[in-house]
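Response to reviewer comment R2.3. The reviewers asked that we include at least one raw input/output pair. We reproduce the pair for Heme A synthase here without editing.
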Amino acid sequence: MSVLTSINPAAAKAVPSYRRAIQIWLWIVAALIFAMVVVGGATRLTESGLSITEWHPISGVIPPLSQESWAAEFDKFKQIPQYKAIFSDLDLNGFKFIFFWEWSHRLLGRVIGLVVALPLVFFWARGALTQDLKFKLVGLLALGGLQGFVGWWMVSSGLVNRIEVAQERLAIHLLLASITFAVTVWIASSLSPGNAVRSERWQRLFAGVIVLATLLQIFLGALVAGLRAGRAYNTWPLMDGHFVPDVLLLLQPWWRNFVDNIATVQFQHRMVAYTLLALAIAQAIATWRAVPGSRAARRSLHFAGLVTLQAVLGIVTLVLAVPLWAGLVHQAFAMLVLLASVRYLQGLEAGKQNALARP
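Raw output as returned:
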């Protein structure tokens, strides 16, 4: 039965024509979330995230339009600790540069909200959605709303007694964006019967673990960015001459090391990267041995190649001490790895069978 089977007989003939439209809409949403993550990365790497010290969901859409308005915004920025510690020599033109990064990030978030909400109302009114799809799409909208609150919760952590946002809040913010992206990709992929791949249970479990590992790695990467840990230890494969640094449990209580210790944060990001790469290669080998030449085997091989490329990008970003372009490419590729892992898992789940089919 189609996921877009009509709710009432009158809409039965029209519903199938909406499948493609809904799928395109959701891929546009996914592309916007992808852009949001990249812009967010640029905002972090340019130290722009605290340039707007207030949150006005409606009036904040309009940036300052006069010299007096710009001066007032700049004065607000001068009151926070980050200005005194990092930007004390910043002039108004420099402030405008960092302001527009943060403003663009927030504006894109508002645009995404509208791009989700307005078509949802339209498709709902046209009777094009099943109850199951309604539930999923309302959940997607709720995730977007929650992201706005989490974003301000993150920013507020850097306005008093700190010169940057709390890295754990930054990581939660990025993780929630990644989950929202993954959910969007999953729903969009589920509307494409051609994504289904016949599979066995072990493959679905393997693919599910990889999706979770990818999300964990993105979370850890945000901790690294939040602590600027990529610039503290920028050699590979060793860290300060050691594969396992001797300062991993330097802080007390011990659990603080996993979010506050620069060496520990980067070390765990490296270890999960190695683990994810090993999982991707193992999945490709196991699937190719089980059904050589199948669609599942080809997809798993392509995914392993994508993860390998991301690992290389991570190393390049590290040894170059995280220049803006490399940091953004690395973050963007992380989202592409997540996209590929989610689509692969969704295809396996959609094609549950006792055996894999050959092409």
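Residues 196-359 form one domain. The longest helix spans residues 92-125. Further pairs are available on request from the corresponding author.
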